[in-house]
Amino acid sequence: MRTYVSTLNVNDVAVSSFKNIQDSSYTMVFINQSGTQKMVDVDLKNTEFEVPIFDKYTSSENNYWQKSQTENLNNKLNLVIPAFGVSTITGKGVKTTSTFSNSLSKSYLVCHPNPAFNQTNITYFLNKDQKITILVQDINGKTFRILDVNSYLGENSVMLDINDLQEGIYSVVLKTEDDLLIKKLVINK
Q: What are phi and psi of 140, to 5 degrees?
């Protein structure tokens, strides 16, 4: 079951989270999209966590997955995500009687691969179920693609065929009911 968590006042860090109802385990994945290390604080006080210690797996540009542990101190997790790194936090002991809710919220938009050749995957996080519009525009604002997509709370993904677009710099624009997110997309041929 997808659950809702995000980072607060931390740019360039995307997060997704999942709860396994069968074994009461919980997983959070944090992706640092910047070239600098990021400090991330996760507030757990209004959640259903009963996990004192989480397993942490971290990978970065220069190393493979390294295992460590992070402690739930006063219902907070303090994480360091390396530059261009990924951290996965897992733990068991989540209550299964209610839906996870967290006061943290942040939308994000990622294009991968970027630079792209024939296609790119557009991944985005939403705070609620909604219909969104994705536009692909050149640097002059000319629109080359318009996609209307029914999307859901949490992380969503759309594969975008760009085979017929010329080499250059484009903007991927994500319009939601509450937000406008823009990401640069470089197309190489």
A: -95, 0
42 neighbors 27 (Cβ within 8 angstroms): no
Cis peptide, bond prior to residue 113, ω within 30 of zero = yes
pLDDT per residue as tens digits for the range 5-62: 545 556 778 877 777 666 667 788 888 888 888 888 776 665 555 666 778 888 877 6
What number of other Cβ atoms are within 10 A of residue 56's Cβ? Answer: 20
CA distance 119 to 134: 15
Report the CATH number at residue 172.
Answer: 2.60.40.1930
Sorted by sequence, the CB contacts under 8 Å of residue 92 that are 6+ apart come out as 23, 24, 25, 26, 51
The residue segments making up the domain with residue 171 are 108-187
Over the range 25-35, which residues count as b (16 or more CB within 10 Å of their CB) and which as e?
ebbbbbbbbee
**pTM for this entry:** 0.47
Question: How many domains would you assign to the chain?
Answer: 2
Residue 5 pairs in a beta bridge with: none
- pLDDT digit string (tens) for 115-131? 998 999 888 888 788 99
